[in-house]
Amino acid sequence: MAEPRVIPGFYYDVEKGKYFKITKTHSAPPSQAKYTLQNVRKEQKKSTAEKQARKQQEKREAETIVRPHSRNRWGLQMASLDREIGGRRKTYYTHGIWPDACVAGMEKMKTVCTDLCIAYNDPDIDGPYVNQQFTPKNCSTIWGAAAPTVPFAPNSIPQSGTESLAVAASSSLLLFERSPTGEWNSSTALQRDTDILALDWLSPTTIILGERSGKILLYDTRSKGHSHILTNPFPISKLKRADDPTRLICAGVQDSLFLYDIRSRDTFSQHAQGHYSDKFFNDQYPGFHRRQKRKKMKHTAAANWSQPIVSFQYANPDDLYLDIAVQPDLGLIAAAQDVNSSAAIKIYNMWTGKLLKEIPQQSPVKVHIRCLRFMQDSNDDPELWSSWGGSVVKMSLG
């Protein structure tokens, strides 16, 4: 239906389908009170706001990938996600067999007992020294720090020439940037009312943040804006970029290790295939007498929690310092386990969630593994390095 023609001094009533003359407030009879100048302006303002809200809703629905409650067709959707961002669809071999083959020949652990010093520096800027010390002000705790890694995906935003460092300091996000002269400048990019426990770079201009409350935020260094995009059910200990800028690995307490896609809406599945099924709530609150707590948790999950794409078999009841590492090219995730677990490190297939290998505790004294990194040797073969008490342990995947 075409929009009614605008006639100066008249108001078109959609319900009655005709024009009425706009009258002044003080001279309008009771039957014409709806068409006074003041009321017409209110109606026009309301109509404009409704149109804008509809346009924004249509735009959100068009740009958001909605995950269905039934996961039977999720494999087809996953194939479409890669195609949407311009990437090639990975074969069954890449998703299911390749990660397993990469860790099949893992050698016995080698302990590196010599002094270790890893320094990254640009001689043109740094000069003769190789390390720098940062001391954030008004900060009681530093939870983590991350620098943009290269290379990112070929279709990501190009990096600028500025070196950057993001720091999770208490409840603040601090950004350190180095000027062309080599001087570092710091600024408080974001202030929150809860601790920021984890962070990582999804792209050269986008930082992902994880809070103690379980909220996952995106921060854009260009617009200086942030948004709450996902919610983890438990406090977050580590966040890592997965295999593209829209997917992330989230580790938290209460044995939570998930793969999220930031383009999927927060939805809740009642089906057995979904992560938050009846079995999940029964494991959290077993027994008939705790049914009210299960019911309350179901309501919280439906209203707030984000549905993960993949969940992993993980043991971490309450340690915020256990590390994880991601090898996106091979599709591998390494996660340090709870000190009371029989396994010290578990390695998973990123795309399927399959447990590929368990590395047991090697000494009677169990240790907390605070650092894990995938590295490459001189032949570009992958290795997994980890802190192990007072030692550095290297595991070859070749």
UniProtKB/TrEMBL annotation:
* Polar residues bias (residue ranges): 30-39
Q: Where is this region: Disordered?
A: 30-64
| Designated name of the protein | WD40 repeat-like protein
Q: Which domain of life is it from?
A: Eukaryota
* UniProt biased composition (Basic and acidic residues): 40-64
The protein's UniProt keywords, in alphabetical order, are:
Repeat, WD repeat
The terms describing its cellular component in GO are: Cul4-RING E3 ubiquitin ligase complex
